[in-house]
Amino acid sequence: MPLDRRTFLGRSAVTGAGVALTGGAAVPAVAAPAVPERDAGRRDDRGHGPTRYSFTVLGTTDLHGNVFNWDYFTDGEFDDADHNDVGLAKIATLVSGIREERGRGNTLLIDAGDTIQGTQLSYYYARVDPITAQHGPVHPMARAMNAMGYDAAALGNHEFNYGIPLLRKFEEQCDFPLLAANALDARTQRPAFSPYVIKRLRTPSGREVRVAILGLTNPGIAIWDKANVSGRMTFPGLEEQAAAWVPKLRSMGADVVIVSAHSGADGTSSYGDQLPYVENASALVAQRVPGIDAILVGHAHVEIPERLVTNERTGRQVVLSEPLKWGQRLTRFDFDLAWSHGRWTVERVGARVLNSNTAAEDPAITGLLAEEHKKVVAYVGEVVGTSKTAMDTAQGPYRDVPLIDLINHVQTLTVEAALAGGEYADLPVLSQASCFSRTARIAAGDITIRDAAGLYPFDNTLEARLVTGAQVRDYLEYSARYYVETAPGAPVDPAKLTNADSIPDYNYDVVSGLTYDIDIAQPAGSRITGLAFRGEPLDDTARFVLAVNNYRAAGGGNFPHVPDAQQIWSDSEEIRNTIIAWVREKGVLDPAEFASVDWGLTRAGAPVFEDARA
């Protein structure tokens, strides 16, 4: 999609860096000449002028479409067990207070990605009233972030969920650059987005400080959004691209280098060995790439107020900070610089996080988007059916519950209908699903779009893959590593049964169409017992069709076999919308029609929960 020339060249002229668009790909533009410093340096070196300067960089990450402190699935203010609040409106109040304290010209505001996916507000303007339509609306996140005066934002992997055209439109609507030094045009291998921006801060003495912000995104995009990016973009590793760009930024006169990285501090990769790159590489970048002063960390959804990593080549410490997701926290980096021998050097960097629940929502932001908010509340409140009984997912991580059965039921019926009359019509269909949200709930009575969408908060689509019985067995064994090994007779605390701290709920799958038990007294890899299909022990050579979401099919979670399995069908519609449409067509939900207890937890053959198969 062509971009306004102003998006690149105009911004470069202001900031002194950026990219110019050439042949559909971006290449580094020539930096604007620095403001002349005349003989100020000599005066300062003699002690006749300011020799120190301090400034602040504020950072958010993983906002996931949260502007208001609102939960569209419960139709009320957001709240959790720790009484966190969410949303840019509260972050805006914190930002305004710090700008007043530090001076507007001495602060920068940046983000580390995953901005335009995650709430019904962001979904509405991607699918229901899309920003890509002719004369379409401006994305609420662009409007809010523009009003708050963001200076730059790195791209997250979820920016690609709705396709590149929508991302390009969002980029066009932002008054700040979207950065991704390791998102390359597949044909030219040049940056497809601005790799960096250099901001110029003016000190009281008139001298400027050049602050470079390098954006890095996640290589897993190549797997997770393969359908959207394959053949169009490639995503090399963070360390490799940082090593290429940081020296360039220093040679261009950057006094300070900050990395905004949509990559956790450290940890295993959910795509395993499918890519030669590290998923959560921020600490590795700090350790191995010299010349970086601080890294704003994203992607992992954890809170890191301040972490110091020593660079192995220079011995200097790099400061890392990750604010909690959805606008629950704001990172504050404070930089102290000294002028000596004609250049600025960083003397100290400190970081901390601020809690957004200490701030009121900024009425300038809530007022700006009041109409958009009202439209989305009305949309998710539309009634699409009724339920005979109340159902929820609170016990979904450790029990077979009806609402997860509902997801699998709809997926199975959808795939069966798609394959009817074809080569694979006679193969039995299995289905995988996870407890995507422990707070999903459908009350007895009316079912709204809000209720149905709450079962599936991710924008995944559905695929069908060919698998064997042996592969399904491996798949279930891998999934069962989610549980903590628990000896027979040991006390059972449901809150401590899972490894959810290291294996998110969405990376634990149950598979419908089979019956089986998971013996959590056994070590991971030897837990699946009684695995049967239609009452008979599972035949390892039998062929099945697995209804699977595109995240898992592309390698998300690093489950075995499925990414390499033959794809025989795929859908472009989100599973969430398929569920909503099915409920609307069905009219009345009766768990007796779709729910059954087909799996359970055991220890040495004894059920963990006595009523599990009741």
From TrEMBL:
Family affiliation: Belongs to the 5'-nucleotidase family.
Gene Ontology MF terms in the entry: 2',3'-cyclic-nucleotide 2'-phosphodiesterase activity; 3'-nucleotidase activity; metal ion binding; nucleotide binding
Compositional bias segments (type: Basic and acidic residues): 36-48
Listed name of the protein: Multifunctional 2',3'-cyclic-nucleotide 2'-phosphodiesterase/5'-nucleotidase/3'-nucleotidase
Source taxon at top rank: Bacteria
InterPro entries reported for this sequence: 5'-Nucleotdase_C, 5'-Nucleotdase_C_sf, 5'-Nucleotdase_CS, 5_nucleotidase/apyrase, Calcineurin-like_PHP, CpdB_N, Metallo-depent_PP-like, TAT_signal
GO cellular component: outer membrane-bounded periplasmic space
Residue ranges of every copy of the Calcineurin-like phosphoesterase domain listed in the record: 56-302
Co-factor(s): a divalent metal cation
Pfam families associated with the record: 5_nucleotid_C, Metallophos
Region (Disordered): 32-52
Annotated organism of origin: Streptomyces sulfonofaciens
UniProt keywords, alphabetically: Hydrolase, Metal-binding, Multifunctional enzyme, Nucleotide-binding, Signal
Residues annotated as domain 5'-Nucleotidase C-terminal: 383-562
Subcellular location: Cell envelope
Catalytic activity: a ribonucleoside 3'-phosphate + H2O = a ribonucleoside + phosphate; a nucleoside 2',3'-cyclic phosphate + H2O = a nucleoside 3'-phosphate + H(+)
CDD domains recorded: MPP_CpdB_N
First-listed, main subcellular location of the protein, grouped into a coarse class: other
GO annotation, biological process: nucleotide catabolic process
